[in-house]
Amino acid sequence: MEYKLNFELVPDSCWHSNLRSILTPAQWNAVRFAAYKRADGSCAICGAATNRLEAHEQWSYDENTCTQKLTGVIAICKSCHEVIHIGRTSLKGGEERASAHFMRVNGCNYAEYRKALGKANEEHRRRNTVAEWKLDLSVLPALI
């Protein structure tokens, strides 16, 4: 089933290889402020109006070429961000809140939530078999 809000479990070897660690503070600000402007005060996923948006990097993973590719940066609410990064959220004790948000946004029940999480975990395990991911930031100029 296709959901509006999904889990995005980053392969372990890609942790901390994000735009904030690669760009200068001024470049990162340009990218995230452009995302905030496009969002116009609403979460790009659930549509909730909020005064505090968070920039979220979207990545695709090609397991055949071992490439982690930046596909975009969107502005989202904290609740959607907690769902996307459910592993981190769970470690901080927020899984119950995040699961409720996932189900509300996607109009699904707890069993469907658990099935989607299981699928995401399996994808994460498979991607963790790649020893090293090449980084593709070719979309970056279009985001600034």
Would you mind describing this structure in some detail?
The protein has helices spanning 19-22, 25-39, 78-84, 86-91, 95-106, 110-127, 140-143, and strands spanning 54-62, 67-76, 134-136. With 144 residues, the chain is an alpha+beta fold. A 3-stranded mixed beta sheet has the order 1-2-3. A hairpin with a 4-residue loop joins strand 1 (54-62) and strand 2. The longest helix has 18 residues, at 110-127. The chain is globular.
Q: Give the count of helical stretches.
A: 7
The number of strands is: 3
Residue-averaged pLDDT:
94
Q: Tell me, briefly, the overall form.
A: globular
Poorly predicted ranges (pLDDT <50, ≥5 residues)?
none
- Between the first and last Cα atoms, what is the distance in angstroms? 33 Å
Order of the strands making up the biggest sheet: 1-2-3
SSE run? HHEEHHHHEH
Largest sheet: 3 strands, mixed
The radius of gyration computed from the alpha-carbon positions, rounded to a whole number of angstroms, is 15 Å
Strand content: 15-25%
Structure at a glance:
With 144 residues, this protein is α+β, with helices and mostly antiparallel strands. Helix content is 46%, strand content 15%. A 3-stranded mixed β-sheet has the order 1-2-3.
Strand and helix layout:
Blueprint (H helix, E strand, L loop, with lengths): L18 H4 L2 H15 L14 E9 L4 E10 L1 H7 L1 H6 L3 H12 L3 H18 L6 E3 L3 H4 L1
Parallel strand pairs: 2-3
Antiparallel strand pairs: 1-2
Helix pairs in contact: 3-5
What are the salient characteristics of this protein?
144 residues; globular; alpha+beta; three-stranded mixed beta sheet; single chain
